[in-house]
Write a structure and sequence with these properties.
four-stranded antiparallel beta sheet; single chain; 18 strands; alpha+beta; globular; 10 helices
Length: about 375
């Protein structure tokens, strides 16, 4: 990890603030908490984006998360990708959101994005934490969830379930518990079969980044001077989180038009972005909509931005900033954004304290986060694609 900067420091290049979050991750003095919160408030007011340092995520873990994503995107066979491809609700194990997205499937602002990805969401039921791999899905599709129990090793009625290579197959509880078709966002997560450690590493990362997200949300309560400084933590206690692994091939050199990911804001509360060393790709819109700031990687830091729900809670005191990815450099860029979202049923409306600080008029109405998310996800893919 790089040397500790002053948390108030703004760099000229890159020109996004750096926030040292360590005081909110371990016991700290009130003065340390206040200093961090003050810097955070400034960052959220001016940019809506910042670099998060001293976040406590193990470097070995973050390195492995990126490495596994790169290995999948660059070495998986077409069949391996197809087995976990996102499908429309009512088609196989599809729920319209979870799974692999082939290049140019994701749509932002009506334009196809030049990237491929895997999307995971908070499991619908606790027993479904692990989701299904491609091989498990193959067995379910052929034999049905309950027929699987009758698939036994030849010569032994009580033998173990076998995969196509003759190895014991361990089915997750959700494979036998719920039967498709699934409604939008109500399915199960789909995982690559290889690299073999992919699912375990990513599930560990989910646990670690949720812990970090709680610390940042707590800091945001302090930054706004809320009477209930745990307000955001409480509203995200059962966060309907989203995680993506994204692979970006370089756009044609010198070409006009086309984007790796189109200009947009994020749906929820807080985005924690882990990305490789590629420079010049992620771009953040400048204050007032003027120009673009390159959010190039900083060693040991995550790129963090606030989303639409945080803008709504703060009545616009903090803005959800537009950003995009335009990767015209060399090499295959990989990133893993993690979205810390409100609870699915959370009602989000401007907080009275924020309304009072922003002129006394409630500028944004109330939404139920889950309904808001359903509307957004439903427009992110071209209809009829499976």
């Amino acid at each position: 990890m790089s040397s500790t900067p002053n948390p108030t420091t703004n760099l000229s290049s890159p020109s996004l603030p750096l926030i040292d979050i360590s005081s909110f991750l371990s016991p700290s003095s009130p003065s340390a908490l206040t200093a961090c919160a003050t810097c955070l408030h400034t960052a959220c007011t001016t940019h809506g984006f910042f670099y998060l340092t001293h976040h406590g995520l193990p470097p070995a873990l973050t390195t492995r998360v990126l490495s596994l994503a790169r290995t999948f995107f660059t070495t998986a066979t077409p069949l391996e990708k197809r087995l976990i491809t996102r499908q429309a609700p009512g088609h196989g194990y599809g729920d319209g959101a979870r799974g692999y997205q082939p290049p140019s499937t994701n749509v932002t602002g009506g334009q196809r994005d030049a990237h491929e990805a895997i999307d995971w969401y908070r499991p619908v039921l606790p027993a479904e934490e692990h989701g299904l791999t491609g091989k498990e899905l193959t067995f379910v599709r052929i034999y049905g969830p309950y027929g699987l129990a009758r698939l036994r090793q030849r010569g032994g009625a009580d033998g173990p379930l076998l995969d196509p290579e003759g190895k014991p197959l361990v089915l997750r509880e959700d494979a036998l518990g719920r039967v498709p078709p699934f409604q939008l966002l109500r399915g199960v997560n789909l995982w690559p079969d290889r690299p073999a450690e992919f699912r375990d590493v990513y599930e560990l990362y989910v646990r670690e980044v949720l812990r970090l997200g709680e610390g940042v949300l707590r800091a945001m309560g302090w930054a706004l001077g809320l009477r209930d400084r745990e307000f955001f933590v409480g509203k995200c206690r059962d966060s309907f989180w989203v995680m993506r692994a994204i692979g970006y091939p370089p756009l044609p050199a010198g070409g006009e038009g086309g984007v790796s990911c189109g200009e947009h804001t994020d749906y929820g509360c807080l985005t924690l972005l882990l990305a490789d060393e590629t420079r010049g790709a992620l771009q953040v819109q400048g204050k007032g909509g003027e120009g673009w700031i390159a959010a190039d990687p900083v060693e040991g830091a995550l790129v963090v931005n606030i989303g639409d729900m945080m803008e709504r809670w703060t009545n616009g005191l903090w803005r959800s900033t537009r950003h995009r990815v335009v990767h015209r450099g060399e090499g295959f860029r990989v990133s893993v954004p993690f979205f810390v979202e409100p609870d699915f049923e959370a009602r989000v409306r401007p907080l009275e304290e924020c309304v009072a600080k922003s002129g006394g008029v409630e500028r944004l109405g109330e939404v139920v986060y889950g309904k808001h998310l359903l509307g957004k996800v439903g427009g992110n893919f071209y209809e009829g694609e499976e």
